[in-house]
């Protein structure tokens, strides 16, 4: 028994991340409610089934050994021989650190063992949220089999690699100046890119842009659920944000990239970004006569400011947060012009994520980042600086990490095993009755009239 592993401080830190795990699951629930409000009633049950199973597969994939990729950076910095192999040996499902109580692990080998063990499910639920976002971009048309295979690849390999590259104080890109805080790179930009590629390959839903002879077209059957989902996400995100950093007793709070920050400052920045996005989203909603911008405006502010929360100032987050819905609107218009049927994840996550990541490079230019306490040389504490060009390098890296495998898997499934997309007949009939034997409702929902205004075709999905 190692009593120093069970101090009150360490137990409190572990509990902070336990609460973070619960909060991320609430985000997944919120995303599910958003989808539930925007799909046709005939596809409601299957949408929930796909999202639940896909997120469980992604989380389970990470538990098998994906967390080892994130620990790889620490093994490299602390000079552990054969760092990746040792990380996998320690942190795969049957590894020593995964199967030993924290107070029985020598702190000389693994200090704060309980905290690091709790970080495994924290990362697993993070992969769940990533897959939940990806699924939101392809609802009502992707086949379950390909979706579940992709979920495993994302959870076991791709999502952990994105975290290894740019989310952590010792990651390769962070040590050169790439800065993230709230998961903008491994969550928003990664999921947005993956969803964009899949939406392009899946083609638009029937009736999305031009009338279909069958009369089928996508429409929202319960838009009010979107507001409930957004409020759940907003309730959970502050807890997740605080978990995106280091709480060092006696020294303070540091962002995940080892930037000097404070819990109070993070919350002030979070509030300014969310409220500014909400106000501008409300203005757009009234001008476009499209209520979803009022519902999702706060999320746009949250995403675009995600990398700035720990190093920015409230007025900066207010300005940048106000730009979030405008970027989302412009991204949605671009998707329509390109005839890509994806008006949720790409406008909400990818567009604001990229703009916010690069803007952070300007707002926080020269801010010290990277490294770890007590290290010297290339891993010294705060040896790197945030710059716009390294932010751009980070964006390009994550876009390639997500986009290339997404395209490869999409092309593979298009050619084997029944294809990537459901059949036309299934799409017209509805998936709940055809796949699950559920009786269709006696009264079908009447299609929601298209909103009047300059963007009348942009509907009940942002």
From TrEMBL:
One of its GO terms (molecular function) is ammonium channel activity. The keyword Transmembrane helix applies. Signal peptide: none annotated. InterPro entries: Ammonium/urea_transptr (IPR029020), NH4_transpt_AmtB-like_dom (IPR024041). The keyword Transmembrane applies. Pfam families: Ammonium_transp. One of its GO terms (cellular component) is plasma membrane. Residues 15-436 form the Ammonium transporter AmtB-like domain. It is found in: Membrane. It comes from the Bacteria. The chain crosses the membrane at residues 12-36, 48-70, 115-134, 146-165, 185-203, 224-248, 268-286, 293-312, 318-335, 347-365, 389-413. One of its GO terms (biological process) is ammonium homeostasis. Keywords: Ammonia transport, Membrane, Transmembrane, Transmembrane helix, Transport. Its main location: membrane. Residues 439-462 are annotated as: Disordered. It is a multi-pass membrane protein. Belongs to the ammonia transporter channel (TC 1.A.11.2) family. This is Ammonia channel protein AmtB. It comes from Geodermatophilus ruber.
């Amino acid at each position: 028994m190692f009593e120093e592993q069970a101090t009150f401080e360490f137990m409190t830190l572990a509990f902070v991340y336990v609460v973070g795990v619960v909060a991320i699951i609430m985000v997944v629930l919120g995303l599910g409610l958003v989808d539930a409000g925007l799909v046709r009633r005939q596809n409601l049950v299957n949408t929930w089934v796909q999202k639940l199973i896909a997120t469980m597969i992604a989380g389970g994939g990470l538990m098998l050994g994906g967390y080892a990729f994130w620990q790889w950076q620490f093994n490299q910095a602390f000079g552990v021989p054969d760092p990746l192999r040792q990380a996998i040996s320690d942190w795969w499902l049957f590894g020593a650190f995964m199967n030993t109580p924290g107070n029985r692990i020598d702190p000389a080998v693994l200090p704060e063992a309980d905290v690091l063990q709790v970080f495994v499910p924290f990362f697993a639920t993070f992969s769940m949220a990533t897959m939940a976002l990806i699924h939101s971009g392809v609802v009502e048309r992707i086949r379950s089999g390909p979706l579940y295979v992709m979920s495993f690849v994302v959870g076991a390999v791709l999502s952990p690699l994105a975290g290894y590259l740019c989310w952590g104080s010792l990651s390769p890109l962070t040590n050169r100046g790439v800065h993230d805080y709230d998961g903008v790179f491994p969550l928003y930009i990664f999921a947005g890119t993956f969803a964009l590629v899949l939406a392009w390959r899946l083609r638009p839903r029937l009736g999305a842009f031009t009338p279909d002879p069958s009369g089928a077209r996508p429409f929202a059957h319960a838009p009010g659920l979107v507001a409930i989902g957004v409020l759940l996400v907003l309730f959970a995100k502050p807890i997740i944000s605080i978990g995106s950093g280091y709480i060092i007793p006696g020294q303070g709070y540091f962002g995940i990239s080892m930037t000097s920050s404070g819990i109070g400052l993070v919350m002030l920045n979070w509030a300014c970004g969310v409220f500014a996005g909400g106000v501008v989203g409300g203005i757009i909603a009234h001008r476009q006569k499209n209520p979803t911008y009022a519902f999702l405006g706060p999320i746009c502010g949250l995403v675009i400011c995600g990398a700035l929360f720990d190093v920015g100032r409230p007025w900066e987050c207010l300005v940048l947060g106000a730009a979030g819905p405008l970027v989302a609107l412009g991204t949605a218009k671009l998707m329509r012009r390109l005839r890509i049927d994806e008006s949720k994840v790409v406008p909400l996550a990818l567009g604001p994520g990229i703009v916010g990541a690069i803007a952070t490079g300007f707002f926080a230019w020269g801010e010290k980042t990277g490294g770890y306490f007590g290290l010297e040389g290339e891993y010294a504490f705060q040896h790197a600086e945030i710059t716009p060009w390294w932010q751009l390098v980070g964006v390009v890296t994550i876009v390639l990490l997500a986009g290339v495998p997404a395209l490869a898997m999409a092309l593979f499934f298009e050619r084997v095993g029944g294809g990537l997309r459901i059949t036309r007949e299934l799409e017209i009939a509805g998936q709940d009755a055809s796949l699950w034997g559920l009786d269709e409702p006696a009264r079908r929902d009447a299609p929601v009239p298209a909103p009047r205004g300059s963007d009348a075709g942009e509907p009940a999905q942002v």
